[in-house]
């Protein structure tokens, strides 16, 4: 951006400014000279003094004016470059891309020709940057930029809108062939390894695409929707791409609503626990109940756990919610039959909190529940985040007399070495195997294998998701004698029995579910 390119400071404007500054300085100089020295000084006539003074003042004023306006232009130029161009790559920065998207939106509204925004993100770039170091990370970004510019059409606009995120803006007529073939080719070429100064670096990409004006013309909305398409592509696997559709927007809006409402719902007391019985097949006796959280929103009704648990984990709300679930389940367990336990699901985030064992110990002390009447269900994923720490936690829980069940067993890690290192008391066969046990011989084989493994390890076994008599019969034949599912009882709140001498303000429930 040169000085003359600023419409507010044309050459005529500059000349008038310098002239006015010079004349003003000249008049002030004469007035000061006349007032201070009279008609002459040191033998020099007044006319000569005026001429010298005028020349000096005009020169000083001109230099000052030029210096000032040059400085203003340099500052404007600096600010423009800082806000419109990425320092590392020289590409357009996010603010500039927003402006270019706005210009493209105006053009497409006039001409009707579609304009596409392609959002390209390097998967796990932060982890890559941390692993190889920031210097090598910068080198990777520069190499990625150079290759990207070579892969897209010559007149396409390319910008860097995030640490490892890039945007390409191009019109329909710039695309050679179909959009599908162009994007597939772009992904294949961009995922080729990069030769850095110290090593060869591989990357994976996710790509989201929006079309203007079909998907909107507001630049901020367009960027949001391209990112939604990108996230959808990432969920589909490595090197995937996705085109925005309206359903993604509805899902994102619902997610945003859940995220903003969680804290209020917790403070308002929207959450409750329902209990599903666990049955011993040989005796037909209920031996325990699994506590399952439910969110009953005053306006939207019942919201399934699958719609808010993951969001609670990502926002940190899972810790207060999980602690509340544990405390309430332990309190409710006091009103169950003495030979029944309560099983509580523990989130991976909750399991790895700083003092999880201390929270469990304090909860048991506050509620007065016996350790033998509490069972914690922990997934393989939770235990594998930090094996050493998980082993220490499980050992402490076992020493306290609390049983731990490995939830959703068989769907997580294929490496089963953790079964040797970890202290646990039960394996829980996932419902995905149970649902197919009567139609798929492979599922039956898996169930039989898990039952045999549990016996070899000396731990208990339970199957969840049992919905038919056929499934129950086959499970029992395979050696699994404890089951849970809709066939034996749906999750339901504990009903309060009037006159229960153990009822409190916090828990006014008893064990009669049926």
Automatic annotation (TrEMBL):
One GO MF term: cyclic-guanylate-specific phosphodiesterase activity
Name assigned to this protein: Bifunctional diguanylate cyclase/phosphodiesterase
InterPro entries given in the database record: Cyclic-di-GMP_PDE-like (IPR050706), EAL_dom (IPR001633), EAL_sf (IPR035919), GGDEF_dom (IPR000160), Nucleotide_cyclase (IPR029787), Rev_trsase/Diguanyl_cyclase (IPR043128)
Domain of life of the organism encoding this protein: Bacteria
One Pfam family, short name: EAL
């Amino acid at each position: 951006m040169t000085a003359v390119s600023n419409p507010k400071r044309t050459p005529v404007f500059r000349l008038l400014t310098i002239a006015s500054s010079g004349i003003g300085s000249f008049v002030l100089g004469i007035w000061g000279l006349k007032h201070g020295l009279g008609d002459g000084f040191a033998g020099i006539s007044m006319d000569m003094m005026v001429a010298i003074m005028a020349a000096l003042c005009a020169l000083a004023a001109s230099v000052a004016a030029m210096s000032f306006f040059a400085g203003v232009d340099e500052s404007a130029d600096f600010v423009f470059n800082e806000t419109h161009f990425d320092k590392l790559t020289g590409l357009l920065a996010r603010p500039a891309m927003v402006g270019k998207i706005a210009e493209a939106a105006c053009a497409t509204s006039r001409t009707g020709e579609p304009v596409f925004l392609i959002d390209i993100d390097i998967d796990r770039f932060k982890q890559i940057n941390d692993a190889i170091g920031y210097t090598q990370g910068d080198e990777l970004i520069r190499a990625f930029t150079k290759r990207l510019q070579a892969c897209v059409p010559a007149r396409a606009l390319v910008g860097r809108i995030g640490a490892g995120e890039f945007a390409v803006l191009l019109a329909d007529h710039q695309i050679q062939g179909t959009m599908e073939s162009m994007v597939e080719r772009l992904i294949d070429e961009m995922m080729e390894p990069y030769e850095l100064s110290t090593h060869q670096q591989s990357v994976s990409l996710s790509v989201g695409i929006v079309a203007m004006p079909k998907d909107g013309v507001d630049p901020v909305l367009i960027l949001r929707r391209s990112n939604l398409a990108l996230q959808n592509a990432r969920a589909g696997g490595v090197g995937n791409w996705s085109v925005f559709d309206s359903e993604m927007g509805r899902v994102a809006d619902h997610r945003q609503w859940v995220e903003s409402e969680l804290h209020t719902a917790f403070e308002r007391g929207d959450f409750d626990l329902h209990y599903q019985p666990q049955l011993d097949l040989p005796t037909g006796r209920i031996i325990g109940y699994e506590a399952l959280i439910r969110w009953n929103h005053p306006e939207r009704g019942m919201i399934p756990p699958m719609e808010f648990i993951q969001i609670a984990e990502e926002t940190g709300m899972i810790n207060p919610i999980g602690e509340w679930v544990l405390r309430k389940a332990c309190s409710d367990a006091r009103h169950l039959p003495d030979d029944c336990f309560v099983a509580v699901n523990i989130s991976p985030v909750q399991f790895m909190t700083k003092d999880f064992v201390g929270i469990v110990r304090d909860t048991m002390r506050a509620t007065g529940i016996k350790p033998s009447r509490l069972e914690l269900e922990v997934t393989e994923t939770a235990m594998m985040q930090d094996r050493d720490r998980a082993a220490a936690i499980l050992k402490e829980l076992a020493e306290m007399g609390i049983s731990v069940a490995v939830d959703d067993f068989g769907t997580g890690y294929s490496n089963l070495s953790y079964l040797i290192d970890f202290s646990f008391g039960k394996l829980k066969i996932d419902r995905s195997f149970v649902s197919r046990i009567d139609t798929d011989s492979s599922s039956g084989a898996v169930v039989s294998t898990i039952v045999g493994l549990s016996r070899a390890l000396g731990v208990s076994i339970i199957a969840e998701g049992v919905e038919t008599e056929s499934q129950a019969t086959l499970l029992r034949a395979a050696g699994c004698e404890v089951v849970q599912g809709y066939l034996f009882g749906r999750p339901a709140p504990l009903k309060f029995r009037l006159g229960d001498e153990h009822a409190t303000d916090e828990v006014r429930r008893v064990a009669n579910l049926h």
